[in-house]
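Subject — a protein and its fold
Encoding — discrete vocabulary of local shapes:
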Amino acid sequence: MNTDVKIGLALGSGSSRGWAHIGIINALSDLGIKPDIVCGTSIGALVGASYVSNKLDLLKQWACSLTKFETARFFEINTSLNGFVNTERLHDFLNKTVASDKETIKDLEKLYASVSTDLETGREIWLTNGSLIEAVWASISLPGLFPAIQNNNRWLVDGGLVNPVPVSVCRALGADIVIAVNLNGDIVGKHFEKTKTVENKNGGVGEKITDLVMEYTGSLFSTPDDSEQPPGLFDAIASSVNITQDRITRSRMAGDPPDILLAPKLSHIGLLEFYRAEEAITEGKNCVKRMQPEISHVLEIA
């Protein structure tokens, strides 16, 4: 491979399925592939930022230790109606596994960008300078779960609404070869499940929090089939997000296809099942193994 060729890595959106990015990055590294440019949308922006700030091992360790209960603790019932996410806990998590508040994008050894959406105009916003944490936060602010983030007099929300797999951003930053990761290629219709009320058997504070969150969102986690019940609030939101991002991804990549497309099989993992990190990471590694002949072919030609 020509060492002068700049490789870009476009990490797509997909919420909890995004832990697959960790497996993909590590598997590419095992093949001697270390991208010069890293661009991410939503969870892709988070994992990408952790990678370029040399904290990916910490993020992997944290993600693999996460339990269903710990996942639920990131959500809270409040009266502000700005979102369900406990922002203080999220901030602490980002500081530990991504970057400090003082670290800026210009401090990084690699080129990095996150994608967000201007809530007022609908414009696609690329964050390529300033606070690394702020760039990540703006990109992961899924409407309904996270409050919008103010940046330069703009209210920003999740970049998956406009550019779920940021191939175009990698090319704009100078990438000659773009490796893209699409987490949403096989999910439309597969997350759509019926919900039930979860009983609180133990009566502890932690269980009550978990049950409240699950009741308010329809269900954070998987639920059994029940053809007589309509979809819960969260299932409806999650399925709508899946459909929107799948359609946008297809359209964007048809006009600007990557040189290598990695599409891990993750339809069995729900949108907020962050405690299933080991499964997602393993599938990320397996995806790279399956695509290794194509990866080698493209990079050898380059």
